[in-house]
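Limitations
The structure tokens in this dataset are predictions for the assembled complex, not deposited experimental models. Users should treat interface geometry with appropriate caution, especially where small molecules or nucleic acid strands are included. An illustrative entry is reproduced here so readers can see what is and is not provided.
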Amino acid sequence: MKKDRQTIAFAFKKSLPVMVGYLFLGSAFGIMLFQAGYNFIWAFFISIFVYAGSMQFMLVSFLSAGTAIPTAAAVTLFVNSRHMFYGLSFIEKFKSMGKRFFYMIHSLTDETYTVFCGMKCPKNTDEKKVYFYVALFNHCYWILGGIIGSLMGQYIPFDFKGVDFSMTALFTVMLVEQWIQFKTHIPAIVGALSAALFLLILGPDAFLLPSLMTTVLVMLAFRKPLEETTRKGAKQ
Amino acid sequence: MIPFWNAIALIATVGICTFLTRSAPFALFGGKREIPGWVKYLGNILPPAIISTLVIYCLKDVRFAVFPFGAAEILSVLAVVVLHVWKRNILLSMAGGTVLYMVLIHTVFA
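Predicted assembly:
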């Protein structure tokens, strides 16, 4: 019992960096969806079953325009293609999580992935449950944000413009953490350079997948030297 | 508004396709067989590369070529980095950077 409580408390603490951003972005989604003519019940179910930030915003425009199913499928696969790379780090872990396996995959968003990457569970917690609860808490913030937005969107008086920067801040902080903990800085540098380069060449809508694929190829090409540097006492 | 079932079909499509992208590595390498060495290696080495890509992804719509040249974003990201190297407190670094960003876009760069 005590261990369960410590596990949930630790998971909650780890989910806090995502909370503000998800409540805010979820609300922004709820407001947009409401304006398109869909109430909080729709926001609730979409946030549970789709659970993807930028794609939910695009879904609102699909619903307004009555986009054809094949088009919606193709756009989703393209926009979310970055997610293909996230599971690579958690194949063994999620496989060992029994009936929670599918939920862990479903809930692997950019933010949850980032939190997982920097997470080290203390001995007094149940590691698998920590992963599950972090995913669940983040999902709850997102759902709650969607409901708040669609119910109260019109009445929020304060100008919240800029709160979404908290997501940029989250990834930046986690990058600094990786920088400090990781034995080699080459992956972080290659990722950033590749992203910046393809952003310049292909523009904001098309750069992500080519950039990540290039990064993966570079990592594979330099596997030997990189593995040697990381093996020297690295924890990751 | 589009018909009810049409809306449901669209939501299901986006949901299922999102799940497909997230489940790809598990479908490919999650079976009974041993995970290939190069996949394990990628799993270990990719997190910092993906997270640095995500930082750029967040800044993708910033227009660095026109005034104010993304100054609010650059200053706020720097603030997050400095705060984090200095104090190593995740929530503090995030809050500091976000508050600075909001102040900047509502005042200096409004």
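Some entries come with short summary sentences. For this one: Chain A touches chain B through 93 residues (CB under 8 Å).
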